[in-house]
Sequence to fold (441 residues):
Amino acid sequence: MQKKKLKKVLNKAQKYIPGISGLLGKRPDMYLKDGNWPTYYSKAKGANIWDLDNKKYYDFSMFSAGTSVLGYADSEVNKASINAIKSGSISTLNPPEDAELAELLIKDHKWAGGVRFARCGGESMSIAIRLARAFTKKEKILFCGYHGWHDWYLAANHQYKGNLDFQLLPGLKPLGVPKGLRGTVIPFRFNNWTDFDKIIKRNIKDAAAIVIEPCREGFPEKKYMLALKKIAKKNNAVLMFDEITSGYRLNTGGAHKILKIDPDMVIYGKTIANGIPMSAIIGKKEIMNFALKTFVSSVFWTEKVGPASALAFIKKHRRLKIGNKLKQVGKRVKKIWAKAAKANNLEIDIFGIDPLASFKIKSNNWPAVLTYFIQEMLKLKILTTDKCYANYKHDDKALKIYEKACFKVFRKISKIINSDGEILDKLEGPPKEMGFNRLTK
Fold:
């Protein structure tokens, strides 16, 4: 039953905002349909979110698509943001925080020599692609992973409508994307030697860049990543690591530090300012200098709040060794799922690096089972799905509450599907939309 406040806001949104939300992952139908998902919040702090009726929930979902690893409204990041606003968030002159942040990032990435800032992941990837093409004077892009919504990426589905299906989102239509971009972007599968031979080797001479998320469900073979680096260097292609999702989860920086493989460029977003819009393109000096030769410019890349917040975030992240905390939380969440499934005679697959964990219960109707899980967990005041992005504010108390709830709901699921019951009959609305092949960016 929709609450009056929620219904009023939803009615406005449905009338004026196509899809209700600007992010696919925040559309209510991705969780529960028919107004059964809270959809809007009045406040967010730590690991808690309050809906429009001031009902408090624990967030054990993707934590705003992975933006806020310190928890919502972190006091130190907030202080930096507020001070930046009070001193004037933007002006005719540039904020000195840009220079300080650039220096900090280069010290953290000694292989690099230049930095450019933007405010979100998708646009940062477009900047990086532009720079790679300008530097190499080549056009093709070989990619693996989810890299945003821009034309350069969606053009992959002009060549074949299913090209992006195994990357993240199946069925994407490149409507509005110029057909002249057909054949300029070519996907390959993660850690796949067959694709290395049949796709990368065959196209590398004409490729401006090899673009890859260095980890997602897990880490690739080091031998495979070294082969990517070697073939890119040999053919004057830019090796580009998209760490918009993986960055600042395993350590203070990127997953490539764990692999001990330096790319030519790395892109950060999402987490780099703990939910404040900010992103960074870091690369070798000879590549980054092409930002002066091709036109890459935007007024809001020069505001103060983003870099001030990023400085506060990175310093706190390093001081508290947040990467270690996130790995510990992720391991514990995986154990909760495994124990709850075993105790209730459910078969379950658990995957993903520890801070980006995901599960799937084996059943004849996974969309319905997942919808039921979300529905029943919501009744226990927990926002969740089949993915849990580990958070610094997922403390012992929160994890115990989550564990108790998982055992309770898994028990309900077991009673239904192991007694040949129809889980669809237990849903309070239609099954959720299933839009993601992998963990969401």
